[in-house]
Amino acid sequence: MTPTHQPSLAVAPQPTDHAQGPEHSRVTVIEYGDFECPSCKVAAATPKLLLERFPNKIRFIFRHFPLQDAHPHALLAAEAAEAAAAQGKFWRMHDVLFENQAHLKDKDLYRYSAGLGLDLARYTAEMDDHIYLQKVREHIEGGRRSHIRATPTFFMDGVVQDISFGMKALHDAVANAVARIG
Known about the structure:
46% of the residues lie in helices and 13% in strands.
């Protein structure tokens, strides 16, 4: 019997990643997610819970992996999140997009941007020119090179985590890693 290959992270954490938690944390968790994915919405609370449970011990990174065939608004939502990031509000937009997952059309994204206090002239110009599309595509390519097929996909310290039976498996893996490292 041939052992199965565990997918591993193809793109190491980058300075341009959207991260929470200390840069030199003992454990790094990376999520490839899609703002229109129902399972990603369920998983959206996980980073906050892990950061609260293990303060100063983990770093959480979010990367875009919009599944455009299944989720027609996910790519534009990812671009909107990047436009918000350029104005220092990625995580606030991240939360708003998941809270309003059923409403991710242009006009909705504009309304959320206004609600976050973004410079709307800048937001509109950047969205019209799709200046963040390349960054989103780079995340997608990194996900493909990491053999991602579904969202959310989580990597802990570069190794994919099986969450097919729920997020408790990820919580347990992080707890074990933090305990092992001390």
